[in-house]
Specification:
The chain is α+β, with helices and mostly antiparallel strands. It has helices at residues 32-38, 44-53, 72-84; strands at residues 17-25, 85-93, 100-104, 107-108. It starts with 16 loop residues before the first strand and ends in a 10-residue tail after the last strand.
Length: 118
């Protein structure tokens, strides 16, 4: 959902690549109804690539199957990636400019200098 399109010369700035140096897993109660409502709002291909880039795509399908809301195994895997896996340290990289945004304590720093803004 984050983009770097406000950088000079960047048209889309999406998706940002994730380079994680520290990933934390926190257990969160499974809520299949919530996950079922969130999934249609996601760019699933981008989510899958993000999960793969941080080593958490195992068992997660690359495409959403019809009737996914009835597949508890799929919903549990989506739940894990969406709610339990957190990048604590690393950086996000703009696909167009290569500009890196640091992630510290789970928070990406997307602040730009005046010279970088369009």
């Amino acid at each position: 959902m984050l983009t770097s399109k406000c950088l000079k010369g960047v048209v889309t700035g999406y998706p940002l690549a994730i380079n994680a140096t520290d990933v934390k897993i926190s257990e969160v109660d499974f809520n299949p109804e919530f996950i079922s409502r969130v999934i249609p709002k996601l760019d699933w291909e981008v989510l899958w690539k993000a999960a793969e880039s941080i080593g958490h795509s195992e068992g997660l399908p690359q495409t959403i199957e019809p009737k996914f809301e009835d597949n508890e195994e799929f919903l549990r895997k989506a739940h894990k990636v969406l709610l339990e896996v957190e990048v604590e340290e690393g950086y996000l990289t703009c696909p167009e400019s290569g500009r890196q945004f640091p992630i510290s304590k789970g928070i990406p720093n997307m602040l730009l200098t005046e010279a970088e803004v369009q």
